[in-house]
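so i finally got all the pieces together for this one. its two components total, 583 residues if u count the protein bits. some of the lines might not be protein, just check the labels. i wanna see the whole assembly predicted at once instead of chain by chain like last time, that was a mess tbh
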Amino acid sequence: MTEEAQPAPHYTASELLAVMASRLLRDGQIVFAGVGVPLLAATLAQRSHAPHLTILFEGGTIGPFIVPGQLPPSTNEQRCTRRANMVLPITDVLLLLQRGYVDVGFMGGAQIDKFGNLNSSFIGDADNPQIRLPGSGGGNDISSLTDMIVAMKHEKRRFVEKVDFITSPGWLAGQRTRAERGLPYGGMWRVVTDLAIMGFDRDSREMKVLGLNPGVSREQVADNTGFKLMFAENLERVEPPRQRELEVLRELDPERLYTA
Amino acid sequence: MSSTAQVAPYSELRRATLARDRGLREKVMSLEAAAQLVRDGEHVAIGGCTLSRTPMAMIWALIRAQKKNLVISRSITSTEGDLLLASGVSNHVITSWFSQGIVWGVSKIMRHFTERKLARFEEWSHMSMGLRYRAGAMGIPFIPSRSMLGSDVGERVMEQMRSMTCPFTGEQLTLLPALNPDLALIHVQRCDAFGNAQFDGLQFMDIDIAMAAKRVILTTERIISNEQIRRVPDLTRIPFFAVEAVVEVPIGCAPHECYGVYEPFFGALDDYARRVARAPVSGCRQYLEEYYFSAKSWPDYLSKLGLDAMLDACRRGRSVHND
């Protein structure tokens, strides 16, 4: 309450992403998180409104707590196991997705299209790529088997009509195509960017703006998107990060590895 | 290559297993002797994941022995993949993700070799890699899964994969072909001279890789007695009869980590990334010359990384035991 009297805190685009994403997570959920913004967001959620949220790491960890200032460089180092409930083989932690234990998969993205398909494999033609990217990792598995949140920068070259290559399936070609191709569960749920928060139309499965970040206009979002975006009738105005949320992020990542 | 050739015939698998000396025997040898067990053109699976429990000393020995045309598979491939490509040891990597690590960006070596078609980066989803090894470990030719459907990752390896309608439920499933590597290279915290291996922390895909492979080379931080193994057999994760060679190599994952013993040597990893960023191929080859070919021994390689760096990595590594 006293916060309202204070001037609006300064924050970086990555901090904004982490705060917005954390607010989407609910108490009691089981969240498959990548390193970087997803991990920061999930940990922030644990420390604010979702103390019973469980983080899963692809490297094979159930329910670790991250030590502030010791963020892991991938989900596969010993830093990912601190005070965990269980460590298990990679294949078995990924199989928890297939078994249906996971509520949300949460990762970053390189390129996304209007149906929420993600590309982290090739820029250009896969047989003759301009850039070979690192690939799927668990991305394909997570997005095939559970509801997804993606946090990424909002740029025209990243938000394209159709991705060059579907690494991680969203709604494929829209409408019911995802289920028809053998993926009856999960799907892209939310896309969080430095400009807006987006969901997907229930019928067409096209990307739809649900809320605008502080100080951002509809035009700005449209101008930075490479396809025609749908807008929800009642656009939500996203509340800026609170001082308390920023403090937690800065305690977790004092060297600004992921929040610069 | 025809798609059926990807799966080892069961008769061949059984024959190869039967032909192995599976008695309780000592198999301790040097890195150099173990490297001689690897033949050019073989499929070598690498244990650990990204920067963790990478059998780096064994890879170091294979590069120094200038092996050729190895097919490499791993759950996630990091700097060891760069070094295997740049040294000419491998031109075919089967993995789910290939780069040093998210904080260092996309591997310039991987890009150089794959974009110029000098090497193949065959991409499978992470769970699919794991299930392929598991099918191999189970002695079955394929395993069904609900992943890799509808995506281009699946499309791109479709000649090796199948999909089917489940005979029980009518659902669509992916059929993943089993992987039975010729060799598995696995680094552990401890094992005995027979190859009974115990490891701590994250397990990655190591048990499945060991049981799927036709031969296993174990490197270990230390060799313990068989009596010590027998006191806590519930901690043994790889049985001796799957193992062909045991090599004791302290700090055998450097500059990567080994759970509870040392964390990554971050300074060395940053230094490597800087060299490769400046001049990808020549930078990597210079690194190989300096750290691989002109090192007299593994301890000499470690001394090039520096005592300060090692102590720092060990202090951080052991910190998991602090509370």
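Chain B has a mean pLDDT of 96.
Chain B is about 35% helix and 20% strand.
anyway lmk what u think
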